[in-house]
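hey so u asked for the seq, here:
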Amino acid sequence: MITAGIDIGSVSTEVVIIGDDKNILGSAVFASQVDMEKTSLDALDASLEKSNIKKDDINYIVATGYGRNNVPFADKAVTEITCHAAGAHHLFPNTKTIIDIGGQDSKAIAIAAKKDGTPRVADFIMNDKCAAGTGRFLEVMAAALNVDVKELGALSEKSTKEISISSMCTVFAESEVISLIHQKIPAEDIISGLHIAIVRKVLSLVQRIPVDDEITLTGGVMKNSGMRKALEKELAPKKVNLPEDPQIAGALGAAIIARKYAG
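ran it, structure tokens below
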């Protein structure tokens, strides 16, 4: 049996194809475009090419994420909360808490086991009304600092002084960053301060759900080493898991859920 999961977010679209052993046969990450159907098809085609299989070989496709209802070729649409829980549980079966930071929202998920051992969402909370604590927030700050967003992690690790960022409103925080630049504060210190501010913002969400001693991090922002280390420091001594590619956890969960519906 071959199944596929398509996670269509407002910033990026991820596709994962898995086989009988639930191992990943192929995956792809594309920037989300206005035409979500075309973006998902392009990402699926790229995943198929890596898998060396044809679309007709796929038994079932589940779409998830912000644009899950804009994939007419998908067999079913499932919420991203459920899919992230399934993906994280598959990778780390003992985890009960998930922190996901994506391009436009951040969320904390508490999961519990059903009688058959499969995960169920026990509770969750999302920050989806404001860019604070998301990838978009980091993109705006990177632009203000005139650095590539992909360089933020490495730069923050060079920081030698903790800088406090008082505002998490994107507009006000950008003004604060510009002010710090004018004060000749090193970029690496500003970036480290931003990471700490985001982490504390996200953890204020996490504290509103049951938190286990083993936590799994997912979402594209978790590719940022500075964010990961700031989270690990704040969460210590809890065990923190990081998938090999945290950005595709939701699509992986969708592909795993597809197996249930494929029969």
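The chain has two domains: 1-92+244-263, 95-242. DSSP finds eight helices and ten strands in the chain.
lmk if thats what u needed
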